[in-house]
Every structure is written in C-alpha cells, then in structure tokens.
Amino acid sequence: MKSYMQFSHIHRAQKDLLNAGFTEEDIKDMDARWSETHRVYHGHNHLAHLLDLIDADASTTADEKSDLRVLAVTHDVVNHPMRPDNEARSAEYYATRLHENHKQDIYDAILDTKDHTKPPKNKLSGIFINYDLHNLLHGSLSDLIKDSHSLVREYGAYDWSQMKQGRIAFMRNIEPFIKQRSADTHVSEYIEWLQWYQPRIAAFAGTFFPMHKGHVDVLHKAERIFDKVIVACGTNPMKKDYAERVAYVDAIRQMLPNNQVEPFSGFLTKYIKEKTYPVTIVKGLRNPTDFDYEKMQLRYMEDMEANLDIVYIMSAREYEHVSSSGIQLVKHVETLEKSDEGLYKKYLVNGDNGKW
User: Fold this and answer.
1) pTM for the full model?
2) For the chain, what is the domain count?
3) Which of 10, 17, 92, 252 could form a disulfide with 22 if both were Cys (CB 3.0 to 4.6 A apart)?
4) Are residues 229 and 332 in the same domain?
5) Residue 44 bears catalytic tag
6) Domain that holds residue 344
C-alpha cells in the first residue's frame, strides 16, 4: 500500500470544529482518518481544495462558512474505496460524536453527497455541492484528467474494465446536471477522453505466502512506474495448503486496499492473456540466484506467448535475504520448539496481525 504525501489541513477548521462541539480527541481522530494511506483522491489535498473554496466564496456569511468547514471535514471522514456506504457512515460519525449538538442540516448535507444529481435537502447542501463538484463544473480538462489519475490509484482494487465502465456511466449520468449549472464545463471532453484512456497497468506476480516487506518494497517501486498494479497470487490446486493459500488472498486484500488482488492457477501467460487490456508483468529480484531462475522462467513463458512485456525490479538491500519460504521455515522451527517469540513476524506487513 503506497503512501501518497499529503499535508494535514484539519487545523484550518479546528476552531469551527471545537465550536460545533467536537473534542480535541475527536479532531485528532478525524485528522488520522483523513491521513489514511489508502486515500489518494479523498485525502488532505481534497479537503484543502474545499476549504480554499469556502474561504474564497464572498456570497456566504461567517456562520455559513463555519458550518461549511465542519461539513467539509466530516463529509468524507469515513472513507474506504471498497465500501458503498461511506456517506452514511460519515453522517453517523458526525451525529454520534456530537449527540444532541449535531445540526440536522449538516447531517443531511453529508448524506446528499452520495448523489449530487438529486435536489439538495437544504441551503447548506446546495452550496457545498458546488464546492464538491468544482472541478467538474469549472475545472480545466487537465484538472479532470489529473483527478482521474488519482481515482485510478484510489480505486485500484477494482478491475480496470469494471472501473472504466462505471466511471463513464457515472459521468454520463451527471453530465446534464453539470451542464445545467455551468457554461464553461469540460465534462463532455472528459467523457470522450475516458473512452480512449488506457492507464499503464502491471501485474506483480508471485505466491505471496506470506506477503512480506520485500514484496511491498517491490510493489511500491512498481507503483512509481505504473498507474495501476494488480497483485496476482499464484496458487497450485495440487498443494496440500491450497485452501489456506486462497483464503490468505483475502488477508492481502485487507493489507492493500488500493490494489486489485486476485488468485490465479495455471500459467501466468494465460492469466495475462485473459485480461481485456494490456498488462505488463512485474517480477521482483533479490539476488543473482533470483535472476537466473527468472531468466529460465522467461524463456518458458516466451515459448508460450511471444509478445510479453516484463519488468524486473530489484528489492531494497535490507530485503535481499527475505523470502516467503524462509519465513515459513522460521515459523515452522518456532512451532516445533513451541516458541512464542514470533521472530518471523518482523518480516511481515504490519506484523501481519495474525492473518498468516
């Protein structure tokens, strides 16, 4: 899971949040939520843009600006790219933290962000819609394309063909609404661009049993090259632990919410060929032994599929000795010796939290 550097902007609304009834601990919690590493588009930069628009709007009163800042912070305070109920959970977060002090207008405005094409429930919501949709209403085509790149990364857990169809359908649904509100929108050109846009997509292939820090190091490096990296987990139905390995894929999905994680069995070349879009294979290398092994594998793959694109990425020096088989051996020895030290855990992602 790659971390995208964003600076906190919660402090710009701190006075408004405290006046609304939130505690210092609440504000720290909200700051932590907005700083979650899976937020690529819906992070602090998005919040800063909203706060800039609120401050620059000469048509709103001081009281309205205060409510709008609280709304800006709370409307996406709960956000996960794979959940369909982020707005409802954000509204619930707002209401439960403030109890009787919460304002119904802010609560309803948070829920309204689920579907901007529906009539706003109140004046505050109507004002905020213009901020939340600002780039679609008034942004340049370059702004919309930049947003699209961020969305591809944030919603990378979805297959690209599924995401592309969903994004185009969403834009076509909202297009009449946007054109009604803005004469200078570039939404039509953006939809046309989406229809031919093809991000650079890679499949980082391996067994990943378990997923360790060396894997994540290579994944982060691949994400500097490609717009989207699929984590392709090879499984062998003939192995005794096949069911355990397939189940572990769900644990990897939880570790990597911005990545499409999926198991495959059989030849990697067949898996790649079944994709409806171009995919480059990414393989990690730790040392010359890995290179020799991967070179042999490459020759077999080229015999099966001549037109393969493959990128090899060296792992960081500190992970040259780390391998899934090595970690399995350390764990096995600890089990035999009935040791509870868990030495193998230092190589796992976040200690693996008991998932492996």
Assistant:
1) 0.91
2) 3
3) 17
4) yes
5) no
6) 201-354
